[in-house]
From TrEMBL:
Residues 8-60 form a coiled coil. GO terms for molecular function: actin binding. Belongs to the troponin I family. It comes from the Eukaryota. This is Troponin I, fast skeletal muscle. Troponin I is the inhibitory subunit of troponin, the thin filament regulatory complex which confers calcium-sensitivity to striated muscle actomyosin ATPase activity. Binds to actin and tropomyosin. GO terms for biological process: cardiac muscle contraction; skeletal muscle contraction. Keywords: Acetylation, Actin-binding, Coiled coil, Muscle protein. It comes from Lophotis ruficrista. SUPFAM superfamilies: Troponin coil-coiled subunits. One of its GO terms (cellular component) is troponin complex.
Length: 168
């Protein structure tokens, strides 16, 4: 809290110093205008001079702003080039950690975790004998079917088989 109070005091002092510096600079650069007792033509000349000065300052401001924008774009391009030259970030190899579901829930929920989860207890057991009985026993020679359908004979048989139901 003492450091914050000290920082706040310094910040307020800095604001006051900046304001005083601004006022001093403006007092140096700006001469006071005396418009009382001037004729219409003299006031018009004064306005023209002030307008010319404003145009000059505005042109300088525009040039400085354009340079600033150009430098900003250049800095951004250089940052992109630096990132490209560095290459991609290499991820370190991760080690496999075996954690049970109970340990994971305990880590996440803390003391709230009461129920133990044994995921393997809920799985169905499949007997190997059941899967062998369901498989069809009919096994033929696959080469006979391939030889029968290969070549023009096979295509002709398929064509004839397609024609015969139509009654021709």
């Amino acid at each position: 809290s003492l450091m914050l109070a000290k920082a706040k005091e310094e910040w307020e002092q800095e604001i006051v110093d900046k304001q005083a510096e601004k006022e001093r600079y403006l007092a140096e650069r700006i001469t006071p205008l005396h418009t009382s007792g001037l004729s219409l033509s003299q006031l018009q000349d004064l306005c023209r001079e002030l307008h010319e000065k404003v145009e000059i300052v505005d042109e300088e401001r525009y040039d400085i702003e354009a340079k600033c924008n150009h430098n900003t774009r250049e800095i951004k391009d250089l940052k992109i080039k630096v990132l490209d030259l560095r290459g991609k970030f290499k991820r370190p190899p991760l080690r496999r950690v075996r954690v049970s579901a109970d340990a994971m829930l305990r880590a996440l929920l803390g003391s709230k975790h009461k129920v133990s989860m044994d995921l393997r207890a809920n799985l169905k057991s499949v007997k190997k004998e059941d899967t062998e009985k369901e498989r069809p026993v009919e096994v033929g020679d696959w080469r006979k079917n391939v030889e029968a359908m290969s070549g023009m004979e096979g295509r002709k048989k398929m064509f004839d088989a397609a024609k015969s139901p139509t009654g021709q």
